[in-house]
Amino acid sequence: MAELLVIAAQRQGELRPSTLEAIAAANGIRQPGDTLAVAIVAADPQSLVGALSVDGVDEVIAVKATDDFQPDLTEAVILALAAARKPAVIAAAHGVDAWSFVPAAAVKLGCGLATDVQALRREDGELVATRAGYAEKVLVDLDFPGKSTVLLTIRTNVFEPAAGTGAPRVTEMAAPAADVATTHQGWKPPADAGGIDIPGSEFILSIGRGVGDESNVEQFLELAEEMGATLGCSRPIADNGWLPKARQVGQSGQLAASCRLYVAMGVSGSVQHQWGMKHVETIVAVNTDPEASIFSIARYGIVGDMFEIAEELKGHF
Amino acid sequence: MANTGSAYDILFTPIKIGPKTLKNRFYQVPHCIGAGTNYPGFQMAHRGLKAEGGWGAINTEQCSIHPECDDSLRITARIWDEGDMRNLRPMVDHIHQHGALAGCELFYGGPHAPGLETRTISRGPNQYNSDFATVPGCPGFTYNHMADEDEIDRLQQHYVNAALRARDTGYDIVDVYGAHAYGPMQWLNPYYNTRTDKYGGSFENRARFWIETLERIRKAVGNDVALVTRCSIDTLYGDAGVEVGEDGLKFIELASPYLDMWNVNIGDITEWGEDAGPSRFYRIGHQNEWIRHIKQATNKPVVAVGRYYDPEKMLEVINTGVVDIIGAARPSIADPFMPNKIREGRFEDIRTCIGCNVCISRWEMGGVPFICTQNATAGEEYRRGWHPEKFEPAKSDKDVLVVGAGPAGSECARVLMERGYTVHLVDARDKIGGYVNDVATLPGLGEWGYHRDYREIQLNKLVKKNKQSQIALGQKRMTADDVLNYGAARVVIATGAHWSPIGLNHRTQKPIPGADASLPHVLTPEQVFEGKKPVGKRVMIINYDPYYMAPSLAEKFARAGHEVTIASVGGVGAYMEYTLEGPNTHRMLHELDITILGETGCSRIEPGRVELFSIYGEGSKRQYKGSGQLPRKENDSHHWHECDTVILITSRRSNDSLFRELKARKSEWAKNGIDNVFVIGDAEAPRIIADATFDGHRLAREIEDESPQHQKPFKREQKVWGVAYNPGENPELEWRL
Amino acid sequence: MKILVAVKQVAFLDDEFEMRDDGRDVDADFFEKDLNEFDHFSVEEAMLIKEAAGDAAEVVIAIIGDEDADDALRTALAKGADRGIRVWDEALADADGVAVARVLAKVVEREKPDMVFTGAQSADFGSAVTGMALAGLLGWPHTAVVCNLDYAPGAGTATIRRELEGGLEEIMTIRCPAVLSIQLGINQPRYASLRGIKQAKQKPVDELSLDDLGLSAAEVVPAARVRRMYAPERGKAELITGSAAEQAARLAEIIKELRGM
């Protein structure tokens, strides 16, 4: 019987959706008799209980403090809960907030630590966390010998967010005393939202030489928008000036750093292009040439005409 | 090499061509280089290097079979006599050293070879004058003589004798050249052949000369050599010529039994840019709509070209049965080591042909030694001893600052790093490539960006090898103080050039009055690339430049909906006649309704209008009128032409202020640890990309030589006085009295 | 006034690589090492402060690593930092961010800087641990992923912006001395000149052992142990067949599935 603790994240009073992924990850390693508690620090934590009442959550620990993110306060909450409850696992989403407080809390606790975890399981009862290494070229299985508590941050967009409706017990917890060194002063909204952001895009529709002519490009811009993808392209398309350089994926262009789904249409898959996208988890290649090298790195392949596929795709979104 | 389990194995699987075995599928088709038999060292080293680089077979350029075929002023090979055989033999031996096959292309040009040196008249099926500019700019200049049956027999014997000399020189392959409207093609092609005897009329009759020639050669050489013919399977003028679906395929079927392999392409000589397609108009594999039918008509191996630089495409055309063997001319020049690089999986190291056809331009303009934009060592193998993949190790530990990462600077930095020098390459742009970054955005010139990409990839690899080296992009422009304080022992200034913003031009060597690119309605090409100034509906291009900038910008603006006029002192894109981009460029200008005012200069620019004049508007009669007076009547052709935006394509000027200031402060070099400051590329003098690249390469090779700013003498190949070319000849002057 | 910048030498893998015999790391022969990209920005940020202070500030670079790591250290020094500290001990061979932070904490105690910068993460493992763990050990104010910094040398507070998801930034003040992890793009890192590179070779570097810092091997154990390391499996493309309509329908299904639509 052990306690699993998830540290929820909120921003401006709204729950960060990745919290539900962290809950799902914790739930996935739950053993019979384990309990799962979620702690939320906010100005009005009660207002977030509903959003946290998902499958698997036994308890919500409501810490009434402030909506401002204060790493010192969050660490104090973790330290207090750890002292009181001796949780086996403390998990948080691998968001920017967690970057500030998780490592500091971990050294104060002297616990095990793994960040940006993309898979969790038990091997012979031992907790094993998987994360990537060497710029995503390898996977690393980590364990935590001798650690009674392990702090984990969970990579976003990997675990299916916890859903359903639960009826967790709500425990109110007074904000612990903390020497808070930061003071919120305001927000700066993102720059031009219409900007093209290949490195930041999770879903990219990319077109290559197969598009043939500049006049054919527009329909793929439309398709990308309909599907909610960012339109990318291979070098010849940018070199021809048919699309701005900011959309070019590859060695002389952009790295699709955050991409998880890459649909390549009419892209043959030159080495230079692959540099920018071959790491992507799910690559779908559409090409008339069955020998195109793009198929060797793709998860799914369609040997066919990109225009026909594009036309048919439109009906689905 | 086959069966390593790689997808590319098929490219390294040997194939029989008659009595010979080609060790892989890389075949350098015949192509001119400007060496011929005049420069045997050049010929040997350039072709031999390709054997070293992995090509399975390497051919000569067109090799004249007899003095009746004299291609002067263009320099091509000849196999007329023992002297020629001696001069070709080093090429053969060099190729054989690397296990490749050597081929000789038997060339009889008919009236497409002007005979300017020998003053002979060629023989053909009929009398006609060449549609090709045998003398550059002068199509229709050269005539032939209609052969009767005696002459036909004699001509065929020329082929046989040349084939025997080729065999005895050591060639493994003899290729009867019938592409590009040469030799036997003039007999097959009804465009030329209107005879009514057994050599004209029906397909069989028109094919007779070619078939008989092949039969006679085969009889003479037997299986000593592989017999190949290079054939244009479609001359691209419909039923007026050879069409693939008609005579083309029929001929393949008819002639196959006499041959060991086919070497096929499309087009003729007058527009051979349809074969050696410039990237502006044609992509990789562009001939395949025609070529893909050939294998249906023959069981002999087929080689064809299509600017194959991409191993994926090579696999595709072999695996889908378009060809058996990858033919290449230009890609083999840009990268003589392409086969080895593919075999070793080093695709990113391939120096990809950009399809600019500057190599070809040198033959077209009259046969000076060829050059390559991508490969600065092309043509320099023998005379300067430059190997494209191997470099003399650094002779000192003096580090180098290169200011400017354009064609000259990036090539100089690359070669210096290859040699082992510590190099810092600095540029204001965010990307290596300098001017090429702009040029590659012009319509159709995207593949020119391969020039930049090769250097970018190589430099990025090289800086990883030497942590002391560095590429610093997006930097503020360096001042002389920055350079002096940089701490480099040697400084190379490669800051490029700019188009004159005031209309400086070669006809007056002065600005055009009113030309001022600081005004809103006047733009230089750089300002067009920047895209910051608005461009009005009516665009007037004032063109004093002979190359691509005017037609390219005209195309760009016409496609964007502007009304474009080019006022041009010379032919628009005149140099593009030499790069074979000319005909389709003119078609494109016509299609886009671009107005061309020829022989037109510009005398004044005002908002909303330009004053133009005919450059021949002065009187033709010269007369001395005294000091201060023109010796002709005043040009009376000036007239105003309305427009909204003026684009000045006049002269270029070096960006040399940094270099000049550093030279002026030479006294400060020593205390800052600077040994020397050099200026290269356009910063020294504006030139084409190929020559800027060469200059950067040259300095990097010669940086330890005496006075590296100035070119080191090269090895010259000239006939040596007092030595006979052929055995038994007397080299002394002998009057025939 | 002193700023300590902790940097890392990161390792990239060649296109093809092999694992070490024990299966817990990649064979070192396949490493290509370089200064962590993020550290170019943290060093630059320190240099900007130093220059704004009329060079009255000292910038000290600290690195944990064997002799190999000297390259990365000298790269940082070549940009104008004043001196370096390199700590190494065989016991640090398996060090993670937490173990490195324990060493750095001792370095900070010794150097007493007014400000500590690290990169927001390392380009090879991206754990984003070292800087904030160091702050935790020191009990110093700290914030990660700083994309803008307004700090007058010696001031009691600094104004920072931290970069959040989706491009949103939060403006906050933070008490100093602090540990800040610096995000890419906060500035435009300078390149070293050849003179800078030559001078860096002459700059003082303290080479310290765990002993010198009063640490034992037992105090620098990592917070996790590598059980195994392996290359992720990549198969051949699964071909979607059928008519164009059928292929597109399946593709739409895949997209919706992965996008949670």
From TrEMBL, chain A:
Presence of the UniProt keyword Transport in the record: yes
Pfam families reported for this sequence: ETF (PF01012), ETF_alpha (PF00766)
SMART domains (alphabetical): ETF
Membrane-spanning intervals of the chain: none
InterPro entries, A to Z: DHS-like_NAD/FAD-binding_dom, ETF_a/b_N, ETF_a/FixB, ETF_asu_C, ETF_asu_C_CS, Rossmann-like_a/b/a_fold
Superkingdom of this protein's organism: Bacteria
PROSITE patterns linked: ETF_ALPHA
Span of domain Electron transfer flavoprotein alpha/beta-subunit N-terminal: 4-180
Keyword Cell membrane set for record: no
Alphabetically ordered keywords of this record: Electron transport, FAD, Flavoprotein, Transport
Family: Belongs to the ETF alpha-subunit/FixB family.
Protein name listed in UniProt: Electron transfer flavoprotein subunit alpha/FixB family protein
Species in which this protein is naturally found: Tabrizicola soli
From TrEMBL, chain B:
Gene3D superfamilies: Aldolase class I, FAD/NAD(P)-binding domain, NAD(P)-binding Rossmann-like Domain
Presence of keyword Iron-sulfur: yes
TMADH/DMDH/HD second alpha/beta domain mapped to chain residues: 523-650
Listed cofactors: FMN; [4Fe-4S] cluster
Keywords: Flavoprotein, FMN, Iron, Iron-sulfur, Metal-binding, Oxidoreductase
Family matches, as InterPro entries: Aldolase_TIM (IPR013785), FAD/NAD-bd_sf (IPR036188), NADH:flavin_oxidoreductase (IPR051793), OxRdtase_FMN_N (IPR001155), TMADH/DMDH/HD_second_a-b (IPR054428), TMADH/DMDH_FMN-bd (IPR037348)
Protein name listed in UniProt: FAD-dependent oxidoreductase
Organism in which the protein naturally occurs: Tabrizicola soli
From TrEMBL, chain C:
Stretches assigned to the Electron transfer flavoprotein alpha/beta-subunit N-terminal domain: 23-217
Keywords: Electron transport, Transport
InterPro entries from the UniProt entry: ETF_a/b_N, ETF_b, ETF_beta_N, Rossmann-like_a/b/a_fold
Keyword field contains Iron: no
Domain of life assignment: Bacteria
Signal peptide bounds: none
Keyword Transit peptide: no
Family (UniProt): Belongs to the ETF beta-subunit/FixA family.
Descriptive protein name: Electron transfer flavoprotein subunit beta
Organism: Tabrizicola soli
